[in-house]
Amino acid sequence: MNVRNIVLDKYSAKVYKNRKEHIMELTEETKNQPIAANSRTIPGIITNRGCCYAGCKGVVLGPLKDVLVLTHGPIGCGFYSWGTRRNKAKTEDGRNFIEYCFSTDLQEPDIVFGGEKKLRQAIKEAIDIFKPKCIMICSTCPVGLIGDDIHAVAAETEKLYGITCMAFSCEGYKGVSQSGGHHIANNTLMKKIIGVNDTPPKNKYSVNILGEYNIGGDGWEVERILKRIGYNVISVFTGDGSFEAIQNSHMANLNLVQCHRSINYIAEMMKTKYGVDWIKVNFVGIKSTIQSLRDMATYFGDKELAERTEEVIDDELANIAEEKEYYYSKLKGKTAALFVGGSRSHHYQLLLSDFGVSTVLAGYEFAHRDDYEGREVIPTIKEDADSKNIEHLNVEKDEKKYHAYLTDEQYQQLKSKIPLEDYTGMIRHMENGSIVVDDLNQFETDEFLKLLKPDIFFSGIKDKYSLQKSGVLSRQLHSYDYSGPYSGFRGSINFARDITMGLYTPAWRFVTPPWKNRSTLKASLAGGEE
Amino acid sequence: MLTMTPKEISERSSLRINPCKTCQPVGAMYAALGVHNCMPHSHGSQGCASYHRTFLSRHFKEPAMASTSSFTEGASVFGGGSNLRTGVKNVFDIYNPDIIAIHTTCLSETIGDDLTAFIQDMDIPEGKYVVHTNTPSYVGSHINGFYNMMSGFINYMAESTGKSNGKTAIFPGFVNPGDIRELKRILKLMKVPFTMFPDQSGIMDAPMTGNYSMYPKGGTTIPEIVGLGDCEKVLALGELTSEEPANILERKCKVPYSLMQLPIGIEATDKFVMELSQITNEEIPYELEEERGQLVDIILDAHFYFHDKKVAIFGDPDTVLGLTRLVLEMGMIPKYVLTGTPGEAFVKLANNLFEQYGVSDCIAKASGDLFELHQWIKNEKVDLLLGTSYGKQIAKAEDIPFVRAGFPILDRYAHSYSPILGYKGALRMVELIAGALMDKQDRDASDEEFEIVM
Ligand code: SF4
Ligand code: SF4
Q1: What is the structure's pLDDT at B78?
Q2: What is the spatial order of strands in the sheet that B16-17 belongs to?
Q3: Of A35, A119, A369, B148, which is the most buried if we count CB atoms within 10 A?
């Protein structure tokens, strides 16, 4: 029996029926079959998923350093999303809202009589103290239930105080995971901020980096490389990002999509409305970074830029060559499993393969089918009730601001060469015999661990320690265990260093105490050997 | 760091900035993790459970398993009854615990799910238990959630047979496994037969074995929880944390209780030890007397580092009160004493302490936040900050020595293994405090003032 079936077999009929759609053992045949994704987690299952609020406030909006993000709800949600995602941010004027946590801390009477009054008052107090240029209001579960109209309060705030104020109805129960929250955040950024300021870019190689949250300084490393080559980075969504820079983002000529899941909506909408093309990039991994840089150069089609790209690549490679070889020798032949959010499980496999580590299992916490199978399946994805509840924005061409870098002809030509408006998904990069699991849960983690015995399991904090207690190195790929950056050339060395030290920590040898082996020792002695 | 925080304090009635508390369910989850073979279950959307597990894992560096009802919009409209039924069945099927301990979230509370009715309607396998408690996150804090879950277990499970089991029940409060181990050590030295409830030692500080077990060795067992009703007495530690469950047990099973301070510092530990000696009528063993003497010795040896130094303390109410007592005993001044958990009793108890030690101009506040604490400090600086990891921002902004204690501590390792309770715990705190103050002195010293011997 294959590994997949061994694990599934332990489920009751009902759970089996559901989970079997989410687990795949890759063969030539199954590779082309659909996988179930972005559907509800079965109640009672120990899932690693978070909620809509976590996707909206926690992932997309949280990193904006010049925005006062106010959580409207009881204290917990705001508290837990305070300083926990390592979105590094630097400001010149010291006005960094990321260091703070703002909440309306709703109390029982507010739940009974409505919380709008308290929200209005909280906004007033926030403006008095901090004089922000922009406030974002994020609602949590009970707010949706008691029906506070946060959008009306936001509109009122704009009139009253002359600042930008946005409301996000990202109650935790919406959708089936963080994914719904990403979408809600994307929609409102599109509606309210993108396209507000038309300052022309410094040069034509102007780009935005989308879906880069600057965890551990990743975004800074990518920006460093791009600037070396001569790109003009207008804005980053949203790591070390600012609402001010995003207002100008539509002026760019190209959008680079790093995390496909959390932000592909913005890329698509900007294409329709402003004509900004997007390509899928990946700055995690050495080969991937090189490929992405070359794709960008191809897009701009400029000889000088292409040359400069190769120069920088050569130089960066030369800088890491020695260390790369060393870590390759330490890591070659190891195996890994990955279970992370919505893009990292793919990106990091490519980085691992740079060091000779192969992947035996990979899965996403809240991806959709396109993240697994590639964007061509999008038209065939059936909407269910849970995804219908997330607003779908229909944007139209903005005749005044629409600008396209490529002619139609150029576009068609390039389409076959670089991932223009395309993402191939994770599965295509995976080998036959490996396992893909959507919304992996604690039971399956334990079982697959026993069967596949990977050397490293990359995941999050909630399963990290259970994995490690089983004797397998576990590294957090959401927070990098407080290390990083992992992107670009230097980052890949940081990453290799971190897993090498994890795998070779001498204490692993001491997991089993010597006296646990005593009886076998005695037996062999009695047997007269040695 | 925190450069936007102004010195001028403005009146705030609605905006919470940098909270010093969190929501009830995380406390409930922690309490349930202190029961052997128990699966905590969060009845609401899976986001809450995800956050709560994350925080417990980050504080303890341990897995914190919990299942969830995984509400989506439908359940939020039609009620969570069917999600709970499916959830409980799956948990028993897949994870096979002996007890499922359900707590609500603000979601299921707001829609008004009646858990008592849901649970009555369930098919619960023979010999297994399902208990619940209500933990609306818009009331109180994680401390309320913690004792509410204890009450849930007592309500469902504690029984009195009319025959005493000769044991004393200890309610340790919201403390670390290291503290619980210290309490147990003292109880053993004092030869008191006891039930510790809850007991996260062995679970949230489980050893590395190479084999992960979802239900590690530790935890209060089912017979022990049922047997709470036959205990001689309850020592409810933590005046603001442990009274509610003690009270419920008394009403349900007529077990009397003594409400005591959390044994942090000399005097509170003395009281605890003397209470224990009354139970057994045994002499207090020399071992404890020796530890106590060592503690007093060190405080006196190092008193000049502590004398009249101003301290700001924040965190959970009983922990903060305990630490306040300790620093007063050391000769320090607890200038600001703050908890995020609401309840004016905290302020009264803190003021009593100020009075008892004759210190003036100290401020105590319940339902406060760290933004306000920071503003106070900007107006009158302190020499030491004592509290959870979130204090490190203030400590950095104002360049104040900082010692971590309480929940959550997210940026240190092994802290939860070592006690702050008992004489040993006090000794540890004294060492940490002296170390922090002396490190700062060293750091700021000019070469000619830099001393090898201090
Ligand atoms: S929704 Fe409520 S219970 Fe859940 S984390 Fe937020 S405050 Fe806590
Ligand atoms: S990589 Fe994953 S965790 Fe990160 S933003 Fe994308 S979906 Fe979220």
Answers
A1: 85
A2: A164-168, A134-139, A68-72, A102-103, B16-17
A3: A119
- pLDDT at position A520 is 54
Q: Is A369 an annotated catalytic residue?
A: no
Instruction: State ipTM.
Output: 0.97
| Ligand 1 near A81 CB (within 6 A) | no
Q: Provide the pLDDT confidence category of residue A467 given band limits of 50, 70 and 90.
A: very high
3-state SS class at B141: coil
Distance between CA atoms of A153 and A138, rounded to whole angstroms? 12
Rounded Cα distance, B155 and A244, in Å: 55
Nearby residues of B46 by Cβ (< 8 Å), 6 or more positions away: A41, A47, A49, A50, A51, A177, B68, B70, B71
The residues near A172 (Cβ < 8 Å, ≥ 6 apart) are A51, A52, A53, A54, A77, A140, A141, B44, B45, B47, B48, B107
Tens of pLDDT, residues B391-445 = 999 999 999 999 999 999 999 999 999 999 999 999 999 999 999 999 999 999 9
Q: Which residues make beta-bridge pairs with B386?
A: B313, B403
> What mean pLDDT comes out for the span A437-447?
97
Between these two residues, B317 and A385, which has the higher pLDDT value?
Answer: B317
Q: CA A144: distance to chain centroid?
A: 26
DSSP A215: B
What angle do the packed helices A303-331 and A218-229 form, to 10 degrees? Answer: 140
Centre a 10 Å sphere on the Cβ of residue B109 and count the other Cβ atoms it contains: 27
Joined together, the tokens standing for residue B247 give: 């009270």
Whole-number Å distance, alpha carbon B158 to ligand 1 midpoint, is 29
Find out whether the peptide bond into B216 is cis, omega within 30 degrees of 0. Answer: no
Is B25's C-beta closer than 6 angstroms to any atom of ligand 1? yes
HSE toward the beta carbon, residue B395, CA cutoff 13 A: 22
Rounded average pLDDT over A128-157 = 97
Is B79 an 8 Å CB contact of chain A? no
Q: Where are the beta strands (DSSP E) in A427-488?
A: 435-437, 456-459, 473-476
pLDDT of the residue at B297:
98
- Give the count of beta carbons closer than 10 Å to the beta carbon of residue B8: 8
**Band of the pLDDT at A383, cuts 50, 70, 90?**
confident
Cα end-to-end distance, chain A, whole Å:
41
Per-residue pLDDT at A525: 46
User: What is d(CA B370, CA B372) in angstroms, rounded to the nearest whole number?
Assistant: 5
Contact B314, B20 (CB under 8 A): yes
**Which element (helix H / strand E) includes B26?**
helix B24-33
From the CA of A463, how many Å to the nearest CA of chain B? Answer: 6
The Cα A488–Cα A209 span in angstroms is: 14
| Residue matched to tokens 């009646």 | B114
Contact indicator for B69, B87 with CB cutoff of 8 Å: yes
Determine the Cα angle at B224 with ends B221 and B245, to 5°.
105
CA dist., res. A141 & res. A171, Å (int): 5
The answer to whether A385 faces chain B, any CB pair under 8 Å, is yes
To the query of whether residue A40 is one of the catalytic residues in this protein, the response is no
List the structure tokens of A443: 């039971």
Is the C-beta atom of A74 inside 6 A of ligand 1?
yes
Q: What digits encode the pLDDT tens for the residues A483-510?
A: 999 999 999 999 999 999 999 999 999 9
- Least Cα separation, residue B308 to chain A (angstroms): 32
Q: How many alpha carbons lie under 13 Å from residue A430 in its C-beta half-sphere?
A: 33
**B141 and B406 Cβ atoms separated by less than 8 Å:** no
**Nearest ligand for residue A477 CA:** 2
Strands B16-17 and A277-280: unpaired
B195's CB contacts (< 8 A; 6+ apart) are B167, B168, B169, B170, B220, B224, B227, B228, B231
Instruction: Check: pTM over 0.95? Answer yes or no.
Output: yes
Which neighbouring-strand residues pair with B315? B339
Q: Which amino acid is at B401?
A: P
CA dist A89 and A301 (Å) reads: 33
